[in-house]
Specification:
Layout (H helix, E strand, L loop, with lengths): L2 E5 L3 H13 L4 E5 L3 H9 L5 E3 L10 E4 L3 H11 L9 E4 L5 H7 L7 E7 L20 E5 L5 H10 L6 E4 L2 H29 L12 H7 L6 H9 L2 H23 L3 H16 L13 E7 L5 H11 L6 E5 L7 E7 L2 H13 L4 E3 L2
Parallel strand pairs: 1-2, 1-4, 2-3, 4-5, 5-6, 7-8
Antiparallel strand pairs: 6-7, 9-11, 9-12, 10-11
The protein binds nicotinamide-adenine-dinucleotide (NAD) and prephenic acid.
Length: about 375
């Protein structure tokens, strides 16, 4: 029997677990996570077969998948290096940066194989409840496997077959440069724009809430998990600093053109971007999975959130994510509820309105 050990069962770890069970339900999945409710949820939903708090449970595994924030992946590799692992075991990770991960993997015991991995798909939602089998469909899945036997690479691809990804091998440095520009820098830009907009509207009653499609499309990823992004930037610092410098130069240039009212230069700025962006084509690969949100006004009272989750549980509606937005003293807050399907979203809306809540649906 094949045994898979997963450390970190959030969005990515649990999506891989779901995909592995689709390929072969008899594969035994043991998972560790610092959050006990994550493990409880995964056991209940049969995403995994066994939960553990001990890394030593990895010792009997045929595959070890590391799916925590990238700084924790690096620490875990150092701890795995001190364990007696099963000969022939394949260890892989899903971290968003690769050079420091590959360096830490050099100390793993002999007779183990490390293949660095990074599915180039995901979401701004996090946690086990947001995981899904089809999260990676048609997306690129980067592998860093210098001098790894092709048979071992084939074994890993076979295990993750149900993800339906497009595999691409490259070096750790190529990888970090590539994703620095197309993923890490955009996350900084989105967060900076949201922060600057928030400051700009500090004294305005309207402001950001009035934003339409433009602001929302460029800033969706500013909702991503800050812990994950702090870890990513820590491990790709030098690359991203260079790319950020180039980006700032681009902004300085357009600012000067604006100041000079140089219509031709401004036109060329937008025209060049349009030509490049149009070549990206429809967002089939690496698309953003659909999630369905509701926004509920909640009073500033103890137990107000528990009341809502109780109503949803009684209606047997599963929440993917729950976020508290704008709770300020003596002012009603807004609760963002996220559902996996439109059916759940509409049922939740109905049941909450029936319970006298004000509900806004944005999709
Ligand atoms: N979210 C994305 O879009 C995306 C896409 C590709 C790769 N990644 C990478 O995948 C990894 C996981 O990201 P995610 O989106 O699944 O995040 P997540 O927050 O959904 O999941 C991380 C999980 O790790 C657990 N965890 C944190 N510290 C731990 C520790 N010390 N020991 C055990 N468990 C611990 C958390 O409880 C959580 O369940 C990160 O390295 C990230 O860079 C993320
Ligand atoms: O779609 C999103 O929300 C993502 O941010 C996914 C995204 C990205 O495209 O930047 C984020 C980090 C990962 O390492 C890979 C993919």
């Amino acid at each position: 029997m094949t045994t898979v050990f997963i450390n970190g069962l959030g969005l990515i770890g649990s999506s891989l677990a779901r995909a592995i069970k689709t390929v072969d339900p008899t594969i035994k999945i043991i998972a560790a996570d610092q959050d006990p409710t994550t493990l409880k949820f995964a056991l209940k939903k049969q995403i995994i077969d066994q939960a553990t708090s001990k890394l030593t449970a990895a010792q009997n595994a045929d595959f070890i998948i590391l799916a925590t924030p990238v700084t924790i992946i690096i620490e875990t590799l150092k701890r795995l290096a001190k364990l007696k692992l099963k000969p022939g075991v394949i260890i892989t990770d899903v971290g968003s940066t690769k050079a420091q991960v590959m360096a830490a993997a050099k100390f793993l015991p002999a007779k183990t194989t490390f293949i660095g991995g990074h599915p180039m798909a995901g979401s701004h939602k996090s946690g086990v409840t947001a995981g899904r089998t089809d999260l990676f469909e048609n997306a690129f899945y980067f592998l860093i496997a210098p001098a790894v036997d092709s048979f071992q690479i084939k074994r890993l691809k076979e295990l993750l077959r149900a993800t339906k990804v497009k595999w691409l091998e490259l070096s750790a440095w190529e990888h970090d440069y590539l994703v620095g520009q197309i993923s890490h820098l955009p996350h900084i830009i989105a967060a900076a724009l949201v922060n600057q907009t928030q400051h700009a509207f500090d004294h305005s009653a309207l402001g950001m809430r009035m934003a339409a499609g433009g602001f929302k499309s460029i800033t969706r990823i500013a909702s991503a998990d800050p812990q994950m992004w702090t870890a990513i930037l820590k491990t790709n610092q030098a690359v991203v600093v260079r790319q950020l410098t180039d980006y700032l130069q681009e902004l300085t240039t357009i600012k000067q053109q604006l100041l000079a009212a140089d219509q031709t230069a401004i036109y060329n700025f937008f025209a060049a971007a349009k030509t490049s962006r149009d070549q990206l084509g429809p967002e089939k690969a690496g698309r953003v999975p659909d999630f369905y949100d509701l926004f509920v006004n909640i009073p500033d009272q103890v137990g107000a959130i528990a009341q809502i989750t109780k109503i949803l549980a009684q209606a047997k509606l599963n929440l993917v994510n729950l976020h508290i937005l704008e709770i300020r003293e003596e002012i009603d807050g807004i609760l963002q509820l996220t559902f996996m399907s439109q059916t759940d979203q509409l049922q939740a809306k109905e049941v909450l309105i029936a319970n006298n809540y004000q509900v806004i649906q944005r999709k």
